[in-house]
Amino acid sequence: VIKAYSNTGKPSFFEAMKVADMMEEAGVQPNIITWNSLLYAANHDRRPGVLQAATKMYEDIPIGKRDKFTYPAMLHILANNKKETEARAVFEEAMANLKQWPNEFVFKAALRACPSQKAELHALWNQAARQPRDLFMGDGSRRIAQNYRRQNGQQ
Fold it and tell me: Phi/psi of residue 27, each to 5°?
């Protein structure tokens, strides 16, 4: 139901939060899918108070649970509100904590959220692409990194 709210194309973060609250009242604990769906809904909702509520929810998500969907969603929320400093901190956290790095979706969201830092972000991307961290097989980020190394003779 929460995912449906995030796909309406209309501002729906607070409405989705009500469903999440009802779930918790019924004894259903949120998981990363719930949190990511709420963040996605917040990304498409620019009403007053969304940034504060989404930021609090993000901060309440255990760092070990945040994943490759959590970071871009939060970065887009921060971009919508022109919070470049906060976005850079989220990017740095993603860079340190994601099992697969670099991640193209986090990078694209960071470019949008941190427009004055594009050159530095590109440098970080290029550096990470030369030495990717990939604890899983088959991720698109790994293929990008491998292609980069092949093109630059660094196989």
Answer: 90, 5
